[in-house]
Specification:
The chain has helices at 2-27, 44-73, 179-187, 209-219, 222-225, 257-265, 288-300, and strands at residues 80-87, 90-95, 100-102, 104-108, 112-119, 124-128, 133-137, 143-148, 153-159, 171-177, 244-246, 252-254. It is α+β, with helices and mostly antiparallel strands. The protein has three domains: 43-73; 80-187, Immunoglobulin-like (Sandwich); 209-300, Cytochrome c-like domain (Cytochrome Bc1 Complex, Chain D, domain 2), CATH 1.10.760.10.
Length: 324
């Protein structure tokens, strides 16, 4: 609608100006015997008209476009979540249910799909021309994008950011399926082994990211400090996601994916008030997929009776000691 409005507005004023040029040129042409007209030194009403009208139209277009931009940038609440890790030169993807894929993404038709993306090395760009969507995948941070496929089929997936010698080979496909076919695919044992390359090289991984994160949480010893009890070395992580936490410097920060990631890899960056900076860094010990799994586990930790996992404890990663 905004596009057609801009086309209509351009046509209206283009035709109006062209018509007035012709009409004025004929109507007010100089005729024999005419004297030289007196110059007009301005008209306040006229100045106001051609200032207020363009300003109103311009601001209206800006606000309409900004509203559309934010609406298109926010994934729907019911979006199916997929985690994407870019790596020279492949795409590693994992569904919330646990199914893994490499250079290939299966999605159901008519379902919004939210991509949470990061890179293990350099900047990549997740580009699906048929969906008119492209988003940078940046090392050290999370970017998000979403799409909703409307037609069953296979669509090209490219990296649209030069990322090294084999950049042109960093390609894949999006496979759009009917919901029933997708559910059947999701429940199958995936062919191919971990680390395999190419379409169809999905890993069996029936373990969800949250479950894998719980195993890592225990394996890395996070459970030792992040106990939901008084005297624990680290803050409890139960129900912390999405909530503001107070830091030692008096400021507040909302516990989101970026904060949890920073706390896991750089735990002394933001210390939660009341705790000491004693948490060790896990930089170099965890890859990006494992960090995402830990974050999903922390997000799943909810107080008993709220419907989430009642996990052991969890701290706003980032705090003196976020989840491992």
């Amino acid at each position: 609608m905004l596009y057609f409005f801009l086309i209509g507005l351009s046509l209206f004023f283009g035709l109006l100006i062209a018509t007035l040029l012709v009409v004025f040129a004929i109507r007010f042409r100089r005729r024999p015997g005419d004297g030289i007209p007196q110059p007009i030194h301005g008209s306040t009403p006229l100045e106001l008209v051609w200032t207020i009208i363009p300003f109103t139209l311009g601001m209206g277009i800006f606000l309409w476009g900004a509203w559309l931009f934010f609406a298109m940038s926010r994934p729907p609440d019911n979006a199916h979540e997929v985690f994407v890790v870019g790596k020279q030169w492949m795409w590693k993807l994992q569904h919330l249910e646990g199914r893994r894929e490499i250079d290939e993404l299966h999605v159901p038709i008519g379902q919004a799909v939210k991509l949470t993306m990061t890179s293990e090395d350099v900047i990549h760009s997740f580009y699906v021309p048929a969906f008119r969507m492209k988003a940078d995948v940046v090392p050290g941070r999370y970017t998000t994008a979403w799409f909703q496929a409307t037609k069953v089929g296979e669509y090209h997936l490219f990296c649209a950011e030069y990322c090294g010698t084999s950049h042109s080979g960093m390609i894949g496909r999006i496979v759009v399926m009917e919901p029933a076919d997708y559910q059947a695919w999701l429940s199958q044992t995936a062919p191919g082994a971990a680390g395999a390359r190419g379409p169809g090289a999905a890993q069996p991984a029936s373990v969800s990211p949250a479950a894998a994160g719980e195993a890592l949480f225990n394996q890395m010893g996070c459970i030792t400090c992040h106990q939901a009890q008084a005297g624990a070395l680290g803050p409890s992580l139960i129900g912390i996601y999405g909530k503001p936490v107070k830091l030692q410097d008096g400021s507040e920060v909302v516990v989101d994916d970026a904060y949890l990631r920073e706390s896991i890899l750089h735990p002394t960056a933001k210390i939660v008030a009341g705790f000491q900076p004693v948490m060790p860094t896990f930089q170099g010990q965890l890859d990006e997929e494992q960090v995402l799994q830990l974050i999903q586990y922390i997000k799943s930790l909810q107080p008993p009776g709220t419907g989430g996992a009642a996990g052991v404890a969890a701290a706003p990663a980032g705090a003196a000691e976020p989840a491992s």
